[in-house]
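Fig. S4 source data, part A: sequence.
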Amino acid sequence: MARQAAKSHKSAEPPLGRNDWIEAAITLLAEDNVEALRVDTLAEKLGVTKGSFYWHFKGREDLLSGVLDAWRLRMTSEVRALIFDKSGTPWERLERLLRIAISGRADVPGGPFEMTLRDWARRDPKVADVVRAVDAERNAFAVQLYREAGLSEADALDYAEAHMAVVIGIRMTLAVNDREEIKRRRRIAGALLLPRDKANGEKP
């Protein structure tokens, strides 16, 4: 009897974690719009029943909130950690930021997933608030890097805004996930966004 109860308890445990569902949702949103995000669709892609979903989420809106939270963390705190956890000059950190942003991943700034979020934000004020907050934090981060590299406050503000526009534009127009094309576009972005001649005490 006890053995049967233990077996029953084991079978009731959720086979997937909360993050598994969130990552599956991010993958789907990188391929389609937010209206296509359905619990039954995700369950089918993951090869499980919808019951697994309700172990972790109250409903679809709860999942969408989890997706937004994950994106905000990934685009802010996690990027900061990747930049500052390694040694290097301010210019090397800016180059590292470009390498992270301009890549073949779907969840980078300007990538397919973010484009879905920005389209969603046009119709949902709560999502728009999150997108604006992430943009503001990313912009402040870029300003900090440019200031540390020796640019004036005015130049740092200008280049930080240009950084976001260039990176998002490059990713939006990167139709093919080709390694050589990604490298070429990083070089273009570097020529536009790494103005060493404007840094105090540094030569171009």
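Fig. S4 source data, part B ends here. Confidence is low (pLDDT under 50) at residues 1-14.
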